[in-house]
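Same chain as my last thread, 263 residues:
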Amino acid sequence: MSPEPSSERLLDIAISLAHDAGSLLYEKAQRPATGIATKSSATDLVSDADRDSERLILDGLRAQRPDDGLIGEESGGRGTISGITWVVDPLDATVNFLFGIPWWCVSIAALDREGDLIGVVHNPILGETFSAIRAEGAWLNGGRISVSDNDDISKALIATGFAYPSRAREVQGVVAARVLPGVRDLRRMGSAALDLCSLACGRVDGFFESHLEEWDKAAGRLLVREAGGSLDELDPPMEKMTPGVLASNGKIHEDLKRLVKGD
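reply #2:
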């Protein structure tokens, strides 16, 4: 069994692998995409870029942490012997990546028996690396970050996202239409991981998306908490879908929750 790791060591591993995967993706973004296929719907895309990035990250984790568990978006996972489990999104916002929209990232988190332990989200296009360690704080490129101090929901900039199934989007669209008149504006950028990072560093005041897989939210969830924000689980828009996240700077949390839930 691997020796008990320090949180700092796990963070170093995650940052290094996220940077390596980001470099690989950046190079692939300059060339025509290959291996494009669909997953949950005709609009839910995957490509060789996703697969190659995940292979790089998982191979690195297996080499350095052979007894840890793994959950990867594209290749499933394995159980943990050490008590540490890695959650990997090798390319969050694949559609943005394939359409040449420069807003995508690599997301890597590690969980232990107590929950979220470390989180890293790397945006190669902007050269931004967000990181967090449980109970120690959150950082952007090594500098401490915190959520905004806005306490007025009517002046709040809120990020959101939509699922791929058309019926789920229909339900989510109704919610978005209800929220929009009560806030400054909505932003739909296409990457839940980066939306959560934007909340953590004060670029937006809140975020909600009613269906997210664990790899979409694990790293960003910890970043928001460690930056001083608040989070709740959000019921999914359809049965058999995983829950989402409602997150904020804390000061507008109850107001945002009322808007999203229609209370």
